[in-house]
């Protein structure tokens, strides 16, 4: 069977940012469908839609743009994209992220019907950035003391080179999986504001059904720098509100899956302790950030 890939990208009020990154998706090999789910944006997407259609004129890629009547959240958008997709494999995209030139082909070469896989992910780059600056930012993020997966916080650090592909409990959002996996899995739509843990939840559902989740550092994708991203998506609220809803959504995630995670990974800790560990991490991280900004501001 020929391997075909549907790329699904939820978006909200970021037409110009989407236009900035969309070529990195269109120019990938093996794409059969490009599905954009607009979550009730009030900004116009006419220009980016026309741009995409012009770029696809000589390509065998079925383009579907669907707009929700109102803002429904990213979980709903992902489920809607799954209902539309016909291809063998799904790759999730984001409207503020671009792919390395071989992202799909590398993942596709390593995947099978019982596997989901993601590559490395780096932050703070731009599609037009020169090679020297790009290399510097990436090397700064390859912090050797970090582990690929932190079982204490259930957080991944997918910016490390590994000698071989490794199995992980879950990856980041830009993951490829067989379409058949989603016949019994849906994105949980109860995560609020920033949607934190939304992707993790779906991948834990995969894990419960015997699917292997793999991390490879053989290919990468890149989040745009915040200063070039339009205000929109899941991060329109204040920094404080974002942090509060990380804590709330982590609580929801653990309430849904803590027993499984405890048993599967021999954590030997209570539901409340897992929540406390994450809360302590968020508080400590933000205190460090405040102190760092204070020192910089005051010399």
Protein model, in words:
With 299 residues, the chain is of the alpha/beta class. It has a single domain (5-231), classed as Spore Coat Polysaccharide Biosynthesis Protein SpsA, Chain A (Alpha-Beta Complex). The protein has helices spanning 15-26, 46-55, 74-84, 103-110, 131-141, 198-208, 239-264, 271-297; strands spanning 5-11, 31-38, 62-67, 89-92, 97-99, 115-125, 149-150, 155-156, 166-167, 175-178, 212-224. The strands form two sheets. Strands 1, 2, 3, 4, 5, 6, 9, 10 and 11 form a nine-stranded mixed β-sheet that branches. Strands 7-8 form a two-stranded antiparallel sheet. Helix 1 links the parallel strand 1 and strand 2. The longest helix is centred in the C-terminal third of the chain and has 27 residues, at 271-297. The radius of gyration is 19 Å and the shape is globular. It starts with a strand and ends with a helix. The model has no long low-confidence stretch (mean pLDDT 94).
List the helices and strands and how they pair.
Elements lengths: L4 E7 L3 H12 L4 E8 L7 H10 L6 E6 L6 H11 L4 E4 L4 E3 L3 H8 L4 E11 L5 H11 L7 E2 L4 E2 L9 E2 L7 E4 L19 H11 L3 E13 L14 H26 L6 H27 L2
Helix pairs in contact: 1-2, 6-7, 7-8
């Amino acid at each position: 069977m020929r391997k075909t890939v549907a790329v699904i990208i939820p978006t909200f009020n970021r037409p110009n940012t989407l236009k900035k990154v969309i070529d990195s998706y269109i120019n990938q090999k093996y794409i059969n469908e490009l599905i954009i789910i607009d979550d009730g944006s009030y900004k116009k997407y006419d220009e980016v839609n026309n741009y995409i259609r012009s770029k696809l004129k000589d390509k065998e890629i079925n383009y579907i743009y669907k707009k929700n009547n109102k803002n429904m959240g990213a979980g709903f958008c992902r489920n809607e994209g799954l209902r539309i997709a016909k291809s063998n494999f799904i790759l999730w995209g984001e409207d503020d992220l671009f792919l390395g030139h071989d992202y799909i082909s590398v993942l596709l070469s390593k995947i099978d019907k019982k596997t989901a896989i993601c590559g490395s992910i780096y932050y703070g780059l731009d599609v037009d950035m020169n090679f020297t600056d790009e290399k510097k930012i990436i090397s700064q993020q390859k912090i050797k003391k970090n582990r690929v997966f932190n079982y204490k916080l259930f957080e991944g650090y997918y910016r490390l080179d590994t000698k071989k592909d490794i199995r992980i409990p879950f990856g980041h959002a830009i993951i490829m999986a067989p379409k058949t996996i989603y016949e019994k899995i849906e994105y949980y739509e109860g995560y609020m504001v920033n949607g934190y843990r939304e992707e993790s939840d779906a991948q834990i559902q995969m894990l419960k059904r015997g699917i292997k989740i793999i991390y490879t550092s053989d290919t990468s994708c890149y989040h745009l720098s915040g200063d070039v991203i339009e205000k929109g998506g899941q991060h329109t609220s204040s920094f404080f509100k974002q942090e509060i809803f990380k804590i709330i959504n982590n609580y929801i995630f653990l309430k849904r899956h803590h027993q499984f995670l405890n048993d599967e990974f021999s954590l030997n800790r209570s539901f409340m302790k897992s929540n406390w560990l994450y809360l302590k991490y968020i508080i400590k991280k933000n205190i460090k950030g405040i102190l760092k900004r204070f020192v910089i501001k005051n010399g």
